Amino acid sequence: MNTQVISIQNNFQHDLNGSVSFLFYCFMNLCIKAEPAALLSAEFEQGGLTLSIEDMGDVAQPDKYRLCVIPKESEDIPLIIKGVLREHPELKPAIMTIEQDKLVEIDESDEREDIQKLVVFTVPEVNEDRHDVLLQGVDTFYDKCKADMEKSHAAYVSKMTVALKGESVEDINAAKDELEGIYNTYVETRDKLKEDKIKEIEDAYQQYLKKHTEEENIRKEQADAKGEKAGFSMNMFAEGDEE
User: Which residues contact 13 (CB under 8 A, 6 or more apart)?
Assistant: First the structure.
């Protein structure tokens, strides 16, 4: 097999890998749980410069639903919040500090010098609205990746056809099979990413529904119990009146 054919195959694989890797990154930014890497896309404008999250502070993950930014300078907190929310408007920010090994919320105007102010971003639950928006996001990113891969596939099939002129039928079939094998592998990876992300969204949505159903049942039971107690008290008054 000639070197041009091998080069085409390698370049095709590189392009497909780039498309699928970007899809993975896009899906990661559709936050269901806290993803520290999701903050890498945030940009912060300061003094005419565009800065990254690493320039603003260190990122930690206190639990699976919260991200914590430890600012290098406390005065940068408003800038950190603005930059992160511009990229991830769904996150819920709070200014906090650590007291007795626990994160506690404090007022932004707190000027005590002996405390370390932190910016904590909480990923909201997947309620009905977020469920629909997230699924729409999955379709948008997936369709873009699919279109890019199909365009790349058509282009490399054309390149391969030109490169195989004059080759034997056996070599032509082997080269084309190799190209299709590369493509099919990345199609499977792409589709699996979509399948896994949808499952993650649906699992989180079901968790939300279960939690709120349980809370509603508890409220109903408490309301029923109060009603029964009130009814019992009224009966006591009624019995007293009969005497």
Answer: 182, 186
DSSP-based three-state secondary structure for 189:
helix
Is 8:159 a contact under the CB 8 Å cutoff?
Answer: yes
* pLDDT per position as a tens digit, 76-85: 999 999 999 9
Secondary structure class of 2 (helix, strand, coil): coil
Tell me, what DSSP letter sits at residue 231? H
CA distance 7 to 16: 14
Residue 205 and residue 199: Cα distance in Å, rounded? 10
Six-digit token pair at 229? 């107690």
Greater pLDDT, 96 or 214: 96
State the pLDDT confidence band at 204, using cuts at 50, 70 and 90: very high
Instruction: For the chain, state the CA radius of gyration.
Output: 28
Q: What is the pLDDT of residues 1-33, one digit of tens each?
A: 588 999 999 999 999 999 999 999 999 999 999
Cβ neighbours of residue 191 under 8 Å, at least 6 residues apart? none
Q: Give the Cα separation of 225 and 26 in Å (integer).
A: 49
Tell me the C-alpha distance between 19 and 12, whole Å: 11
pTM beyond 0.70: the answer is yes
Distance CA 41, CA 46 (A): 16
